[in-house]
Amino acid sequence: TYQSLSQIGISFQRGGTFAFDATKFKTALSDDFEGVAKLLTRTATATDARVGYVSATADTVGRDTPYNVVITQAAQQASHTGSAFAALAIDEDITVTTGTGSVTYQALAGATPEAVAAGLNAAFTAARSGATASVSGGAIVLTTTGYGANATLSVTAGATGLTGSAAGVNVAGTIDGKLATGTGQLLTAGTVAGDDVSGLSLRITASAADVAGAGGTLALGSIVYSTGAAGGLSKVLAKLTGLGGKITSAKETATESSKSQQQRIDAFEKRLTLVEERYKRQFAALETLMGRL
């Protein structure tokens, strides 16, 4: 396992630039691709396959102690079931509206539930609508492809009994014991100063049946998060150039100096700006490098 950038051919020079040894980097990739990826990028490893890492912020702390994940509600798709029928007696227009727009399909007299579902799916595919149709117990079931409260269905129909509406449900739960915000299947820890888990976003694929089977509270193990070199460098840059950072503070101090020192202040600010720009260029170059992995 690689512990430093120099082990994979990336090193910073005294002049403020960084050197890249392509041969050493390629060798490291060949020997341990996952080790290189882990060193360079933000990564997370969960103990439960129903928990997936999505993203983190510069405030999220990488640590050896895992973050525990518990949910009390699983994300669900919007789903609406019509009435059972053997075959339509007359033609029927079915209009389905989702977050991506409306689709109208004309089901012909004599069509079976399976034929109507197939026709609806063809119409959904053509319109790139976020819905699917299936058949259960002789009735048509419409389901959104998306999850959460923003996944909605509104239907106008006839003998199929599909007229009505439905909405999905957001996941609900905690990360590291802190109440998190659910948006569809995404569970995101709030941004709280000093909170290690701040900004960590996870995808939870556990089902409503999983939660019910656990008695309403489902423990999904834990996840270990690592910032990697990218996350570490991003955090350093944020501290240097952000509110209260060394560069920012130096600028503010210089600005408050007496007018008699204005020329020296201007020169000092220019040097600081160059340093800041150099750091940003280095970070951008490193991000480009990591994007090629």
List key phrases describing it.
eight-stranded antiparallel beta sheet; 293 residues; four-stranded antiparallel beta sheet
Describe this structure in words.
This protein has 7 helices and 17 strands. The relative contact order is 0.17. The chain is 32% helix and 31% strand. Strands 3-17-5-13-14-15-16-4 form an 8-stranded antiparallel beta sheet. A 4-stranded antiparallel beta sheet has the order 8-7-11-12, covered by helices on one side. It is of the alpha+beta class. The radius of gyration is 27 Å and the shape is elongated. Helix 1 (22-31) crosses helix 2 (33-40) and helix 6 packs antiparallel against helix 7 (262-291).
**In terms of structural class, how would the helical and strand content be classed?**
alpha+beta
Oligomer: single chain
Report the total helices. 7
DSSP E strands, number: 17
What is the topology, as strand order, of the major beta sheet?
3-17-5-13-14-15-16-4
Helix-strand blueprint:
Blueprint: E1 10-12, E2 18-20, H1 22-31, H2 33-40, E3 43-46, E4 51-55, E5 67-73, E6 77-81, E7 92-98, E8 101-107, H3 113-127, E9 131-136, E10 139-147, E11 152-156, E12 164-167, E13 172-175, E14 178-183, E15 186-189, E16 201-204, H4 208-213, E17 218-226, H5 228-241, H6 246-255, H7 262-291
Antiparallel strand pairs: 1-2, 3-17, 4-16, 5-13, 5-17, 6-10, 7-8, 7-11, 9-10, 11-12, 13-14, 14-15, 15-16
Helix pairs in contact: 1-2, 2-5, 5-7, 6-7
